[in-house]
Amino acid sequence: MSILEFFASIINSLAWPVLIGFCVYVLRNPAGKLLERISKFKYRELEAEFREVLDDIKPIEARVSDRAKLDRPESASIALEDLVDVSPRAAVMEAWILVENATAKFCEAHGLPSRMSHQGLFRLAEEKNLDIAHLQTAYQELRLLRNKAAHATDFEIKPGTAKDYLRAANFIASELGMRENSA
Questions:
Q1: pTM for this structure?
Q2: pLDDT tens per residue, range 69-104
Q3: CB 3.0 to 4.6 Å from 102: which of 76, 160, 167, 173, for a disulfide?
Q4: C-beta of residue 78 within 8 angstroms of C-beta of residue 179
Q5: Same-domain status, 81 and 137
Q6: Coil, helix or strand for 85?
Q7: Does 146 lie in the same domain as 57?
Q8: Are 101 and 170 in contact, with CB atoms under 8 Å apart?
Q9: In terms of domains, do 134 and 46 share one?
Q10: Quick one: average pLDDT of 156-169?
Q11: C-alpha neighbours within 13 Å on the C-beta side of residue 73
């Protein structure tokens, strides 16, 4: 074996490990930021999307709750917070029922059909100059997340994520309740 063959074999042996090390070095910051956003990665990023969407709802909640604060129904909230520790998935489902009930009461108070799509609700509310347009994105995201909790059985919802969902659902139910009472 000549010296050139020796160096060629060393380079050939080290090419992949050096390339992988270089990629890890270059991507360490973006990968670290990505890992911070993931709550639980199990299958098709459902749980990662769950956490990210709830984080997107928080600014809407903060902006609106600065304008008006409403106490949430204590008995329902306490029972749901207890349920989070036992079954986070069930807590998400029950929290969505709070939103559905508040929506039905809001619709009834304003003479809207009680059962309609969320797009129809917000379209009719806009036509009647009802002040709920700021809730549309959060409402839609909570609805989609509830659907994933109900139908996607191959991912786990952590209690912290369910508590965030519960807080957002209580916020939307309170906002709709406040606007129901102003009818």
A1: 0.58
A2: 444 444 456 677 778 888 888 888 888 888 888 888
A3: 173
A4: no
A5: yes
A6: helix
A7: yes
A8: no
A9: yes
A10: 85
A11: 17
